[in-house]
């Protein structure tokens, strides 16, 4: 997908909070309401927009993928290419992987906030599910339907509705995520998804053969 415009942090935060509230009839606010209901919201991370690493943190090669959870090409990479890359390079300690979210729309941001709500250990599980079931959860034009689809994924991943509501009504996190996305994408010259940065070298949508060749070269250096 091509990045034509970037919404401001304030506008995107509105999409995260007010539109979610309107679409899903949630309680008024997040953490306070969740606690009032007897369910504590997940503790806020020191940096809600931190990079989440998959694999050996000391691996000599780093893949950074800029991906949108609603991008069909990103889903194709996740479903068809990434499993082999993970098996051959990440699981063997040669490569570490970082996914950086791109927010083309409110659904991308909602999905990211749910994934991060589960903590680092669950993040890539949610990501895998989003891409595997992209047409199922993101295919509707009705925000209320998409909101409930994301709730269903969250429940399957071990979160309850109170936790999800608290996370999705966290305006500070929404603003931090969009700010980090905008700054990182601008710094790295990202204009489409998926885009990969392998040890500082940028590549656009890659086939399995192309990525393996780039990784073999990076590992050998």
Automatic annotation (TrEMBL):
Superkingdom = Bacteria
Q: Which residues form a coiled coil?
A: none
Chain's role? May be required for disulfide bond formation in some proteins.
Q: Which family does it belong to?
A: Belongs to the thioredoxin family. DsbA subfamily.
- The protein, known as: Thiol-disulfide oxidoreductase
The organism's lineage is: Bacteria, Pseudomonadati, Pseudomonadota, Alphaproteobacteria, Rhodobacterales
